[in-house]
Amino acid sequence: MSFQESKLYKECKNADPFFLMAGPNVIQSEEHIFKMCRQIKSVTDSLDIKFIFKSSFDKANRTNINSFRGPGMMEGLKVLEKVKTTFDVPIVTDVHEPYQCEAVGKVADIMQIPAFLCRQTDLLVAAAKTGCIINIKKGQFCAASVMRNSAEKVRASGNPNVMVCERGTMFGYSDLIVDPRNLVWMRDAGCPVVADITHSLQQPAGKSLDGGGVASGGLRDLIPTIARTCVATGLDGIFMEVHDDPNSSPVDGPTQWPLRNFRELLEELKEIGKVSKGKSPCHFDLTPAGDDFMP
Questions:
Q1: Disulfide check for 52: which of 90, 99, 120, 265 has CB 3.0–4.6 Å away?
Q2: Phi first, then psi: what are they for 112, rounded to 5°?
Q3: What is the spatial distance between Cα 186 and Cα 131, in angstroms, rounded to a whole number?
Q4: 109 counts as catalytic
Q5: Least confident among 101-105, 177-181, 282-286
Q6: Beta strand 110-113 with 176-177: parallel, antiparallel or unpaired?
Q7: Between 223-233 and 262-275, two packed helices, what is the crossing angle to 10 degrees?
Q8: Assign residue 117 a region: left if phi > 0, alpha if psi is -120 to 50, beta otherwise?
Q9: Is the N-terminal amide bond of 288 cis, ω within 30° of 0?
């Protein structure tokens, strides 16, 4: 089966200066998800930014086996479907196994492939066959060039609705760096390029726990720095996790952006995006400049 580019995909490709995927990392409760969607949407509506609501029903790659993972697929999809209907917003959520794709595809508009799984052919093909937009996060261990192959696995399965997402590269064992060049090189995938400006500040397994073991930390104070850099470099979309009380979040608290500071950051990023020429190709004139050349 072959699909056409969806209306939402075309809107994302043409978003000016960018589209936004945002929300809390994981579904904590229906009440919390409704509150977050309503408050985030009020900001994006007022700033005229295309908004896709994000939250996960299951965090399958938690560092610790006892960590909170979410309500599970069936219960989580019920909540996301209610949010989608109530607030008339598109939904993005992630999948970890091929069997999940059919059910998730009935609710989600964008299906996200986690970074650790960006090369998993069976998962990419199963996701592609739903016809959803597929957002593939670049593995922390991958070169930007790898994403062309991952995107092609989706297109070869009959689905042109694919985008790729930068989320940092491992720098040693417990840190990530963001190389802005990846946002340029990933355009070789021939699809919209997204920057995850919150997970990029994770410090994987970088926090020691009392009693032994580790958890992921993060550098929340540097999220604006990375966000400004990515928008100025040129991108099509921003992915960010937002929480009304990050310190109480059961998942990735150190890298969730505070709701109280959401509008301020988004306003700044929109202004940067409006003046940046980052998405335009750079043309050089390498002919010698003689004495009569006027700079």
A1: 90
A2: -100, 135
A3: 22
A4: no
A5: 282-286
A6: unpaired
A7: 20
A8: alpha
A9: no
Q: State the first-to-last Cα distance of the chain, in angstroms, to the nearest integer.
A: 55
Answer yes or no: 66 catalytic. Answer: no
Return the SS3 of 48: coil
The β-bridge partners of 214 are 208
Tens of pLDDT, residue by residue over 189-225, are: 999 999 999 999 999 876 766 666 667 789 999 999 9
**Is 159 in a helix, a strand, or coil?**
coil
**Which of these is catalytic: 94, 109, 196, 252?**
252
Report the amino acid identity of residue 50.
K
Q: What is the mean pLDDT of residues 151-156?
A: 98
Categorize the per-residue pLDDT at 56 as very low, low, confident or very high, splitting at 50, 70 and 90. very high
E-strand spans in 244-289? 257-258
- In angstroms, rounded to a whole number, what is the distance separating the alpha carbons of residues 287 and 290? 9
Six-digit token string for 3: 């699909």
| Active-site annotation holds for 25 | yes
Select which of 25, 159, 161, 182 is catalytic. Answer: 25
| Contact (Cβ atoms closer than 8 angstroms) between residue 146 and residue 135 | no
- Write down the residue that tokens 């958890």 correspond to: 215
Give the pTM: 0.94
Residue among 41, 54, 58, 59 flagged as catalytic: 59
